[in-house]
Amino acid sequence: MNESPVRYVAAFWRSRPGTAGSIASAWHLFSAWTMRHQPGVREMRLLRSDDDPPLFIALSTWADAEAIRAWRATPEHRAFTLDIATLCQEVSYHELTLAGERLFWAEARE
Question: What's the whole-model pTM score?
Fold first, then answer.
């Protein structure tokens, strides 16, 4: 596997009843701000569980751990995490490194 400094952030949010739309709206605004203003961000995705609809997973990919630290230190990030916490029953955040990868398009060429 390619040794890469790429880092990932995963946020797991379990919404309170009636707040799913607010979570999605808040994420859309914050992700747009992040993509415009934070060096090192590569992509952001918001997923919602099909079999457990109150569960959201926000995934982002970053150039390195320093870019994540800079993002988390912004007043905008602090405000967003406080706002999300009020909409959720449970919240957890995790920084991750790639442990394995298999890509269809790469497999198809072999």
Answer: 0.87
